[in-house]
Amino acid sequence: MVVADLGCSSGQNTLHFVSEVINIFTKHQNNLGQSDMVDLQFFLNDLPGNDFNHLFRILNTFTFKGASNHKGDILPAYHIYGAPGSYYTRLFPPQAVHLFHSSLSLHWRSQVPEQLNGKQKSYLNEENIYITKTTPLHVVKLFQEQFIKDFSLFLKLRHEELVDGGRMVLTIYGRKSEDPYSGDVNDIFGLLGKSLQSLVAEHNFSLK
Predict the structure, then answer these.
(1) Full-prediction pTM beyond 0.90?
(2) Which of the pair, 161 or 172, is modelled with greater confidence?
(3) 115-126 confidence digits (pLDDT tens)
(4) Which of 7, 64, 92, 182 has its CA 20 to 30 A from that of 153?
(5) CB of 130 within 8 A of CB of 193?
């Protein structure tokens, strides 16, 4: 069984997901009374800039901590690999993956909208890294269009890579209102943007 974590963490959160899959899979297989366990293959995906070296060092000492809860049960063999690359491109062969998982990653766009991609044009978003209350409405619409384009491509690619009957579990930031300026996420990223600007100012760097 092949499982892929798209936009994985570079730390312990990724291993929590791996442990949970092993735990659920073990319960399911043993409840069915199956003595021959299927091996689990985990592919941890993120952009090449992710600190995979740190992740692999953690993996070197990783053991399934839920084993104590499965005394007498047959545990599956599991194999964990890195899969660097953008999830807005093909990552796996056709019909190769049984389960895709992505947690709090798909809000990242594949690129800045082309209309904003330029040294001067980037200031149309008031130096924000997200849609905030100071973002002009036409910029909001550009990011919404980019999201539709990106997410449609993401679903198309994963459809090609999933086996028949495969599953995806996607956790994505959202808001309760259709108003793009409402929601806690805007405030969180607004504060994060201000923090980054403060760091730049402290080191006398220019955003221009």
Answers:
(1) no
(2) 161
(3) 887 655 656 777
(4) 182
(5) yes
Q: At what angle do helices 12-31 and 52-60 cross, to 10 degrees?
A: 50
Q: Which amino acid is at 123?
A: Y
Integer angstrom CA distances of residue 108 from 8, 96, 130, 173: 13, 25, 10, 10
Distance CA 106, CA 128 (A): 18
C-alpha of 134 from chain center: 27
- What is the C-alpha to C-alpha distance for residues 72 and 140, in angstroms, rounded to an integer? 55
Spatial separation of the C-alpha atoms in residues 142 and 144, rounded to whole Å:
5
Q: At CA 124, angle to CA 123 and CA 130, rounded to 5?
A: 90
The answer to whether 207 and 125 are in contact (CB under 8 A) is no
The single-letter code of the amino acid at 57 is R
Question: In sequence order, which residues have a C-beta less than 8 Å from that of residue 144 and are 6 or more positions away?
Answer: 180
